[in-house]
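Tokens as discussed.
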């Protein structure tokens, strides 16, 4: 029997280094969850849930710009002015730092008051997003699963700072699956939250069903991955010859 909810049972086959985490945005207080009793940055909350904790937070538990991006608080003009980035050594000038605030995904004011977090094996709510820390090989399977029935082009979007906006908010707002490489984001790297070279994938709620279904149906390790370069070339040649006969 899977330790994950039935609709996510296929995920147990991955044997992830850290568990996937469900996140829910809500205007009302979540039921059946405890409140986080310590202040953390937005990205640190993901790690807290990866450790096995299920909890909810309000704007008062954040120690970063997270509540401003979530529309829980007014944006601090010191950030939008671009003056912070040059002092951190991330940007040469304030104007470069200012530019990212025109692109950052943000929620409108007063839409949500609570965020719920839970590792997949303790998740009792329907998530708005599911965040997965995967190896490159595991992430490759997900990338094929996202396009297995749609043929969609995959993309990765982010900025040097405020990576939490692209990790949490962009997929929630757009319905797009997003990914980043651990070690790329300035704040997450400075906080040493994740081992480097892993892929953080965020899947929004309206894509979870088809991705899970595709994972259940498709080959995780296609034959070409096992044949080696020459074997794959020969297989491609056979396919071309077969198609030539059929046409």
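Sequence:
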């Amino acid at each position: 029997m899977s330790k994950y909810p039935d609709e996510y049972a296929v995920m147990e086959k991955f044997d992830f280094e850290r568990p996937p985490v469900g996140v829910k945005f809500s205007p009302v207080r979540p039921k059946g969850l405890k409140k986080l009793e310590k202040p953390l940055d937005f990205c640190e909350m993901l790690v807290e849930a990866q450790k096995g904790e299920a909890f909810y937070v309000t704007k008062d538990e954040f120690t970063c710009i997270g509540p401003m991006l979530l529309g829980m608080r007014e944006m601090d003009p010191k950030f939008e002015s671009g003056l912070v980035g040059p002092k951190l050594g991330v940007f040469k000038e304030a104007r470069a730092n200012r530019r990212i605030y025109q692109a950052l995904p943000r929620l409108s004011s007063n839409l949500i008051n609570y965020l719920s977090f839970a590792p997949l094996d303790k998740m009792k709510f329907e998530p708005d997003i599911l965040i997965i820390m995967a190896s490159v090989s595991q992430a490759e399977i997900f990338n094929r699963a996202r396009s297995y029935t749609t043929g969609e082009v995959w993309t990765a979007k982010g900025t040097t700072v405020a990576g939490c906006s692209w990790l949490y908010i962009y997929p929630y707002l757009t319905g797009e699956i997003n990914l980043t490489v651990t070690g790329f984001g300035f704040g997450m790297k400075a906080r040493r939250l994740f081992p480097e070279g892993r892929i953080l994938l965020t899947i929004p709620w309206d894509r979870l069903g088809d991705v899970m279904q595709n994972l259940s149906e498709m080959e995780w390790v296609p034959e070409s991955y096992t044949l080696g370069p020459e074997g794959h070339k020969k297989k491609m040649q056979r396919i071309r010859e077969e198609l030539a006969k059929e046409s």
